[in-house]
Write a structure and sequence with these properties.
single chain; 242 residues; mainly alpha
């Protein structure tokens, strides 16, 4: 249960025993990321269904996304904002790393954060109530894909992510893919398309980061989660094929 609780602590604001947090996380902690996402998404989907009983779809979606941000401590959204400030422009990799660590927010970051939240609200309003389940799970699965393909870089190569990604490989990715792949297949062609979109978001963003940064950081992984969630939610909101 320790890897599961560590993953819960990483990805949500829920508290776990201090003895669990004190232990350095290993690669099997990352395997639980998509499961935590599915559980979070299940709670959000249930909330969305309840809110739609008394509110217009857009209001229900806005409240659901607000809880979504609060439940994750806005850490993934923060990663998207930081990456939007750091990655564009003609800068050296070292300058980009400095911007990622800068607590201030620039114009690109504000725009990316606002657009991300608005897209989530708009797509959630038009999506079925099961969409947050798959989107949240695939977002964290995309993070797992990125962690396998792109090494972590903390301060001087140290940090929680260093032990989390140490030894992370194909068998961990395979184990972590079981839950999101199962949900995607159960959702039909839309679910499969969402799975493909999450994979493209993970690999595409990781490749961009690899060209512009010395290595991946927690902000990059957070931005990948947000990007994958937005992409999959937008897909889930499309009308069914005739």
């Amino acid at each position: 249960m320790t890897p599961f609780l560590q993953a819960l602590s990483f990805l949500t604001v829920l508290r776990v025993p201090a003895s669990v947090v004190a232990k350095p996380p290993g690669p099997w902690t990352a395997v639980w990321f998509p499961v935590i996402g599915a559980l979070l998404g299940g709670a959000l989907g249930a909330l969305l269904a309840i809110l739609r009983l008394g509110f217009p779809p857009l209001v229900a979606a806005g409240l659901t996304v607000a809880v979504w941000v609060l439940a994750t401590g806005a850490i993934h959204l923060d990663g998207l904002i930081d990456c939007a400030d750091a990655l564009p422009g003609l800068r050296t990799p070292e300058e980009r790393m400095r911007i990622l660590k800068d607590p201030t927010v620039g114009a690109y970051g504000v725009a990316a954060g606002a657009c991300g939240v608005l897209l989530k609200i708009a797509s959630t309003a038009a999506a079925p109530v099961w969409a947050p389940v798959l989107a949240a799970s695939l977002g964290r699965w995309a993070c797992l894909v990125a962690m396998v393909s792109q090494p972590y870089h903390g301060r001087d190569g140290q940090g929680t992510g260093s032990t989390l990604t140490l030894g992370l490989g194909g068998r961990h990715l395979l184990a972590g893919s079981l839950v999101p792949a199962g949900i995607a297949l159960a959702a039909g062609w839309v679910g499969v398309a969402m799975l493909a979109a999450a994979a493209l978001a993970a690999l595409g963003f990781a490749r961009l980061a690899a060209h512009r940064l010395p290595a991946a950081t927690g902000d990059v992984y957070g931005a990948i989660i947000e990007t994958a969630e937005i992409a999959t939610l937008c897909l889930s909101s499309t009308p069914p094929l005739p």
